[in-house]
Every structure is written in structure tokens, then in C-alpha cells.
Here is the input.
Amino acid sequence: PYVQVRKKKSNIILKVEEPEVVEEKKDSMLDYFFGKPGELDADLALLGTSRRRIAQYVSLAIGVSLVGNFLGLTEVLLSTPLLADFARNNKLDTYYSVQNFKRYIDDENHLECLYPSSWLGDTSVYLKRNAQGAEALLQKRAGPTPLAAFSSPNTRKLENLSIFRSDIPEVDSISSVLGDDPIVAAQRLLDSAIAPPSSGKSASLLTASQRVDGAFTFEYMLTLPSGGNTFHNIAVIIVPPRMSQLFTFTILCPEDSWSQREAIFRLVAESFRLIK
Here is the structure.
């Protein structure tokens, strides 16, 4: 404060004036962390960057992490109920596990099926298929052609699935090849191809039926020679109409594991189908 002296006639008047107090404006939380408008951009410019560039780097890092399935994050996200159907409809399950399954797609033969995501593809089948494809340009090969095979690394490949293609005369439907009765057809295949008398194997048919899409499916027990392992298997046979090919899908499971694996194996067998 200061004193102002003023004379008025014979009287002296003293007036004390207080200095004006300016109330300090408090910064908001946003200003506290990022500075006042323009300050953040100025600071970033001194560092040779900008908010836009940082956003681009962050987006790139997130994109790379998702594509690379960093720490399994992508598979966790795609397996949520909200995204699982989206992932399947867009065939993302051919690259990432979606709810513990991946999908195999054969564009050449128009086939697809699911398989447990922990299973590994058999590279020898892939190499053999390519070799046969090259040789087929020179000569016609007899016998079924392996298309794909997957197996569990935790069971010494005792749990596995395989897909084969056989060349047949062109037919209108599967009944033209195997007959109208799935049970008779399945038993004939067991006796002649899967466990013929000379093989030492024994097989017993459990069930056989025809699916809505026309495929024959049958379930059977198979025991290997000399007291070997007993397997509980499901086979699916598809014959595309007006084509000269027969496709066989077989999934094998040791009998002592069937009760724990039945639901998974039935789902996988049901997923084998033709695609457009």
C-alpha cells in the first residue's frame, strides 16, 4: 500500500490505497498435462515431430501387433462372441485361431474343414501333392491323392485327420458310386479298403448316414494288427455332382480318448464340405 497526500485548504487529507489484487487463473487438468493451446505443438515441433506423426506411429504399432498376433492378442480378440462370426465370414480363421479352431481351405478342389488350432499340418503331404501335380502333367497316376493332413503334436500323431481325392468316372451323385444305402456302402468300404482280411486289421461299423448335403458319413472302430491300438474314427465321403472325383475325409482318435474328444471330433467332421 502507499499513501497519497492531498492538501485541501488548511486540512491535510491522507488517503491510503491498496494495490489491486489480480486473482491467478488456475489451469485445467488438460492444460496441466499438455500445456496451453499451442504449447504442445510447439514443444513437439522442437523435437521434430507432431501429434499427427505420433498418431500414425501408434496406429502402425497397433496394426503390426494385431497382424503379427503379438502375445496372442489378435486371436483373443477374434475369439470373442462379438468378432468370432466376423472372423469366420472373412476367412480370418485360416490365419488365426478362432475359438480354438483354424480352417483349412482347398481352393483348387473347393473343399474346407475346421481343425483344432493346436494341430500341425503335415508338410510331407504338401510336398507329395506338389510332386504328384508336376508328375501328372507327364502321366496319369493311379490311386488316391493325399490333399491335406493335420495331427496333434501332443499325441504322437495318434489324433489326426486326412483328406484324399480319388479319380472316378463322371457321375451325377454319390449314390451312383456307393449306392443308395449308406450302411451298405460303409460296410463295403470297411471290408474292401479299410480293413480287408489280408491286412490283419479289424473294423466294426457303428453308424452310417447321409447328410443333407448328400455326403455319406460313417463312424467305426478300427483295431490295428497284433493287439495294436484301437481307434474311434469318423469318415465323410463327398462326390460332387457331374464331376469325376471322390473326396474322403477321415479323423482318427484313440478309443481311450474318445469320451474327452468326441464333441470336438464330431464338429470337425461335420465341417468338412464343398464350397463354391
